[in-house]
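Q: How would the structure tokens look for this protein?
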Amino acid sequence: MAFPAYANEESKKASKESLSIKLFGNRIYSGQTFGEYLLEFLIVFSAAKSIAKDGDTDGRFCFHTAEQIDSGTLNYYTVPRVGLKRFVFYSRSKQDSHTYCDDIAYDEIMAMLKGKCPDPDWPYILQDLLFGYALVLKKRGWYAQSLLPIAPELLFPETQGISARKAKQDMSKLSRETEFDYGSHDFLARGGELYYLQLLEGLYRHPEADKYREQIECGIRNMLCAKSTGFSTIASKLQEWWLNYEGISKDEPTLTRKMNMGYIETGFGRRSLYSLEELACFLRNELHPVQRIELMSIGVVLTLLRCMHLQAYYTVYPDSTHDPSWIIDMHSGSATSNVAKLSARSYRRAYAEFGNALNKLALSSGSANEEERFTKVSEGLKHSADVFKRLGKEMQLVIPPRGAYERFSLSEDIVRYLVLSLLPPKKKMTFDSFLEMIYQHFGMVIGPDQYSGEDAEAGMYGYLVDNKNRFQEFLKNCGMLRDLSDATSIVENPYAEVTEL
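A: Here is the predicted structure in token form.
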């Protein structure tokens, strides 16, 4: 059953849309970059969930409430802060994204800032400081570029230029700040929303999960606000000065954009409790802000890739009694080992299951014409299996980064995230218990104890013992494992616990 409940009607409509929308619910889009999954999740989470009334909270840094879910629609309210974004990106962006009106606005904000300090270079120093935290530039227009999520005021929702801006030689000051296309999801797509909705579904459907709500809400507030007061002050002041200069009230309604949430299909709910537990545990770790962003980006994408595969797998095998496995090859330097062959087979099976799921959906939606079905499935693969492959390679869950014979593996950053999300700060567990936990949470098979099922080959167990030993050594080199004796090893989380929660 799709979540929220009213999305069942949306699911029916999706049969007329792309197959990837029908498969996942919200759209996973091939153009969304790695860091934007976390960025979009934080935009949704930190945004207001309602228009505040006297004495009421507006839901910033909180999940939607059960009442809001039951109301029949899920909204959030963002503030694009176009003036601030223009100040940071405009002078370095591609020329074809510039317009006459924005040229004037950029010159005005630079002149205004120069008038506030005798040093004429200070606006450029400030600009360089903020631009140094750029997350996504590529060849996008200035309005579609992003910064690292180092402060709430620097979380820019997706904004797209419109042709009308090019044609106009004269725009009102308010129109210059508001006449954009919002919510088209051309770049931010809906990947971060999928992650948010999965967590929300876990809280909504499982009362026992409510213990994670406060931990996550406090953890993200700490992440975005506790260490970012300087950047928050800079961003707030710049936007405030600009609006005052333009004569625009900060309470102008059109400066706030109402966004509608999408929905998720059932496969995402299969591990919603695990996702809540992992995020709550991860946020308890005291980390450098940039390292936290990097590792949390990996965690969000890793979770989504697992959910995408679960959704595809159970679409093909709805009566299966076990989740699909990812056999991890720790012989990352050799593509010819027996474990590498097992892992490659595991990856090929996962990739194929996306195509099989899309083909099944195409048949069920009435695409009887073979050519039409092939076209639809091919398009759906771009926004499902190919995203799984690209993101997997980018985070080194799938190796090699280029070329054939792809197989599952683990990078140091993935392993670090696994330890920090499954093991609380300063806590320990046996190595064998840790192997079992990552198998339960992510279906990762590293040693022989987790290698089972009808496809298991008895002759491979010895090779998986060696694979397990290599992973043990890998953890030790990362500073996260100690040998107590020849027979016992302990995995430990060396990080301190956040004290501000």
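The mean pLDDT is 90.

The longest strand covers residues 75-78.

Upvote if useful.
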